[in-house]
Amino acid sequence: MHAPQPITAATGEAGEDRALRYLQARGLAVVSRNYRCKGGEIDLVMRDAADALVFVEVRARVARSTQRFGGAAASVTPAKQRRLIAAAEDFLARQVEDVPACRFDVIAIDGARIEWMRDAFGVDA
């Protein structure tokens, strides 16, 4: 018998599942999920129709916490962006021979609302 997950972990996992389905419905293909390295973690690595790698950060908030702490997108701070960039660099070094075009997207889930921010930030973050 497994212990129940904390609400934040369950919310995050459900958000990642929703984001994955949302992106797949829009033509993106999954390359990797929950890529972890010493520098950080990437929720989703996808490939778009132009064959670019898309590193996706999923931020999910339950509706009642959205107003109190800011929206899901507001939680992708410059420090979080630097960790995502470091993890993406690690992924590229370990997983990809020829580096394709890449971008960083954010999927913000606030309650029932999903917002997809393409090119949310760059490596100069």
From TrEMBL:
Pfam families: UPF0102 (PF02021). Gene3D superfamilies: 3.40.1350.10. GO terms for molecular function: nucleic acid binding. Belongs to the UPF0102 family. This is UPF0102 protein R77564_04267. It comes from Ralstonia flatus.
